Hints:
This protein has helices at 3-6, 32-44, 52-64, 73-85, 100-108, 114-120, 153-157, 211-222, 246-255, 281-284, 321-331, 396-414; strands at residues 93-95, 129-131, 134-139, 142-148, 164-168, 186-192, 199-205, 207-209, 224-228, 231-237, 263-267, 290-293, 299-303, 310-314, 335-338, 346-352, 358-365, 382-383. By secondary structure, it is α/β, with parallel strands linked by helices.
Amino acid sequence: MSLSVRFASLVIALPLLAPPALANPNPQSGNRVFDRAVDLVEEHFYAPDNLDEFRDAVAITVANLTDMAEADPAVVSDAIDFVLARLETSHVGHFTPDQVDYYELVDVFRFGFRDRVRQLFPPRGRVTYDGIGIASATIDGKTFITDVYDGGPADRAGLMVGDEIVALDGQPFHEVESFRGRAGVAVSLTVARTVEGPSIDVAVDVERLSPGVGFVSAIADSAEVIEHDGRSIGYLRLWAYTDRQVKSVIEEALSGPLADTEALVLDLRSRWGGAPPTAADTFVGGSPDMSMTYRSGETNTIHARWRKPLVAIIDEGTRSGMEILAYALKDNNITLVGQPTAADVVAGRAFLLPDDSMLEVAVADVFVDGVRLEGAGVAPHIDVPFDVRYAAGADPQRAAALDEVVRQLNAAMTVPKTP
């Protein structure tokens, strides 16, 4: 996995005023993209006393890379990743337009550089890219689908988490470039579902995707009623909590299709974070339910709270604001199933560099009830590993969460009532 992915995770995003520019002690490379990235770290990184290793890496890079002013963009990107890695914190990373992450994060941070976004995505600055609604990762030299967004083109086509991507239309696969300019076209994705098994071709439609809208839709489409061991269990996956509509979508699911279920499995294995500090109130808070009915008979949910048994799933994709949600659930005795969270809980701010790539910088430390989750994360009560490779539809963490919530329901039935 690339350094930019390993060291960047989202999202606690803060709209901060820029501090006064500080003198930059680093040598200039002559490359405006690299030098601007270095300047931004010097100006905004939340722990300026911890920049020694970063500055050493900058000096090494400038001394050893010749002709930086005219360097290939890939070389510059690698150089930025190299120096950022020395910061050893989350919410730091460099993202380029050949990554799905770039579009998702530019959409998250778009209000911080809205004028540039309008130039990149004219006329209104609505961030979009051509794709099929997946995320992928290279593991041991092979590319695997790590996420299939609910209700998206890949989901409708039957692609699965864990599928190895062998080719697209017979050519090597690139997560953005393979689809660029092909919205409205059906492509053939060649995948392998087992280590030794044959490859299969899956026809999937390419669509013009808007990340924020897509995440909200995926959350809504993830709502599912599962019959498990004679119990009716609701399931909801929070792909990202980075849009103001997410709270409404959650509450509509809880008061709508999931309302009559006996318990809920809340999946916090997200792409990005962003959950506000009050996100747990929907599940463990004391505020009342509230709706409004208008003259037309239309009823709107203002606040819906889940009051039945709940189990949550976490893993290394549960990050930033979503980790704070996991922490709050655990603090309220909600069982967590899966793997430890990402331990990525500082605040990040994004900047567009001269070549339109995006730099994220950690700008503030974060404490939750006086506890620093950065570097520590949240551990599950029930540890369930999940090797995504060739999963072929199996999801041991979701299966374990369903088993646990049924166990809790059954245990509650055997508790004698107090006379």
